[in-house]
Write a structure and sequence with these properties.
Helix content: over 70%
Number of strands: 0
Structural class: mainly alpha
Radius of gyration: 23 Å
Length: 300
């Protein structure tokens, strides 16, 4: 049996991409397990809010052809309700995105700390409940900065995107503040911006193709749902189709883990290249290892 993948080592462009897929392949079952445990609640809420939005949209469409049910005040209330639903959905999507990032980066951090072995559910929960609100607040601030950057001819936003992506893994892996992680992300990516950006572009293209393939059934069902609303007996099937379409889209969100793992691999690679922390840890262990054979005591 081959040993588990070492996270803390320098990598070139191709090795980062290949090791991203290798890490997911070696740890697919535990990653899938923790995805549903720690992100499942947000998936349910975001899916439920999207289903409600679709129902309201179809009801609004149907009522627009009913002169007895459609008036200006009713239309205003329906539009306002749909906007409110979209805002609720956006909030749950942000919470879901942060949960995914925190889950994956906590998993990778514990995996490295435990010398390339799997973390337990209790260890994962301890890390996630400690970091989630910290990462949520820092991500909201980063979103605002990115929006401002994209408003200035897109270039600042594009430049800052790979740098800001490293803030979350730095905060979790090094248990540090947002300010330190913010400054450290610029130091780590110095002289490596183009290679890091190239990795994220390649992973994004792969992720886009995967999502496109997975979303084909959703698009077919969505088109069928719209077509059914043009028929007389559409209400019986519109809700089940909306539920199935939304569930397919929610499950496909798991594949976004590909980008998160790529960010983690980039972080550990850049850290090893710049600081050599993994090498120093291995050197320090030479003088502490027991000469007698046997299993090492478990570390917490």
């Amino acid at each position: 049996m081959s040993p588990n993948m070492e996270l803390a080592k320098p990598r070139d462009f191709g090795e980062i991409i290949s090791d991203t897929f290798t890490f997911i392949k070696e740890n697919f079952k535990p990653l899938l397990k923790y995805f549903f445990i720690f992100c499942g609640l947000f998936l349910i809420f975001s899916a439920a809010s999207m289903i409600l939005i679709e129902i309201k949209a179809f009801n609004f469409y149907d009522s627009s052809y009913d002169p007895n049910a459609f008036d200006d005040s009713n239309a205003f209330s329906r539009v306002f309700s749909m906007i409110g639903g979209l805002l609720v959905y956006a909030v749950f999507m942000v919470l879901q995105y942060v949960a995914l990032n925190v889950t994956v980066f906590c998993f990778m951090t514990l995996y490295r700390q435990k010398q390339n072995t799997l973390p337990t559910t209790e260890e994962m929960w301890g890390y996630i409940k400690y970091y989630y609100l910290k990462i949520l607040g820092s991500n909201i601030l980063l979103y605002i900065l990115l929006i401002i950057g994209f408003m200035f001819c897109l270039v600042p936003g594009i430049y800052l995107s790979p740098i800001f992506a490293l803030v979350t893994p730095i905060m979790i892996a090094e248990n540090t503040s947002f300010g330190y992680a913010f400054n450290q992300s610029f130091k780590l990516i110095k002289d490596n911006w183009w290679s890091t950006f190239g990795v994220f572009v390649v992973i994004y293209i792969v992720l886009y193709v995967i999502n496109l393939i997975v979303s084909v059934p959703s698009m077919i069902l969505g088109a069928g749902n719209v077509f059914l609303h043009l028929t007389k007996n559409s209400q019986a099937l519109s809700l089940p189709i909306s539920i199935i379409t939304t569930l397919l889209q929610s499950v496909s969100y798991f594949f976004h883990m590909l980008m998160v793992v790529a960010v983690g691999v980039v972080y550990f690679s850049l850290t090893e290249m710049k600081e050599g922390t993994g090498l120093m840890e291995r050197i320090n262990q030479f003088g502490t290892n027991e000469p007698t054979p046997g299993p090492e005591p478990e570390e917490y």
